[in-house]
Amino acid sequence: xxxxxxxxxxxxxxxxxxxxxxxxxxxxxxxxxxxxxxxxxxxxxxxxxxxxxxxxxxxxxxxxxxxxxxxxxxxxxxxxxxxxxxxxxxxxxxxxxxxxxxxxxxxxxxxxxxxxxxxxxxxxxxxxxxx
Length: 131
Prior knowledge:
By secondary structure, this protein is mainly alpha-helical. It has one domain: Up-down Bundle (3 helical TM bundles of succinate and fumarate reductases). The chain has helices at 19-48, 57-63, 67-95, 99-125. α1 crosses α3. The longest helix has 30 residues, at 19-48. The radius of gyration is 19 Å and the shape is elongated. The N and C termini lie far apart (71 Å).
């Protein structure tokens, strides 16, 4: 007797149903590609072009004086949170069968992600160098 196993690591784009799943699948591919470039650029700025001993409050304060770096850091924050939340949403959907537990897990995931997004956005937008 041979059983058919599903290779969950090779998800195919959803066919049929709501367009949300297809858009979420496409978002994961695009945001993952953008995140690679953002993360590599972030690593070069923070760890290659600058000595890690100089990465302190003053470095970040000087960096965030320009809107470009605040926007860059906010985009990195927003995309990484959305990408991670969408990935965990799929994992929860695929691995939790009980509808009540699945709904609770999704609610906890969305709530936690929203809290981190609000705190991160507040830190970037409301940051003032001189306190």
